[in-house]
Amino acid sequence: MIDLFKTKIGRLRIIAILEGISLLTLVFIAVPMKYGFDNPAFVKMMGPIHGSLFLLFLFNTLSVGIEQNWKFKETTWKVLLACFIPFGTFYIDKKILSKL
């Protein structure tokens, strides 16, 4: 795990996992609490955290894509799309990022 902090791809993988966890927390815990139990406190807390991680993931993906000369049509768009889909960042980490 410490080795992941040494490279840009490693840091992107860490951000991808954190972003994925924040999205799942927001979608499967915070939003049901807001609408099912009329308790928006967790959404108010998780929303900005997820938003920050989302933007960090987008910027780092583009940065790594440019640095590694990824072809947009082959790799970059898949990685970017992953952050919009629950469990997507976990899938991309296993299928693409872990192999780089």
TrEMBL record:
<dbReference type="GO" id="GO:0005886">
    <property type="term" value="C:plasma membrane"/>
</dbReference>
<feature type="domain" description="DUF3817">
    <location>
        <begin position="10"/>
        <end position="96"/>
    </location>
</feature>
<dbReference type="InterPro" id="IPR023845">
    <property type="entry name" value="DUF3817_TM"/>
</dbReference>
<keyword id="KW-1133">Transmembrane helix</keyword>
<keyword id="KW-0472">Membrane</keyword>
<feature type="transmembrane region" description="Helical">
    <location>
        <begin position="45"/>
        <end position="63"/>
    </location>
</feature>
<feature type="transmembrane region" description="Helical">
    <location>
        <begin position="12"/>
        <end position="33"/>
    </location>
</feature>
<keyword id="KW-0812">Transmembrane</keyword>
<protein>
    <submittedName>
        <fullName>Membrane protein</fullName>
    </submittedName>
</protein>
<keyword id="KW-1003">Cell membrane</keyword>
<dbReference type="Pfam" id="PF12823">
    <property type="entry name" value="DUF3817"/>
</dbReference>
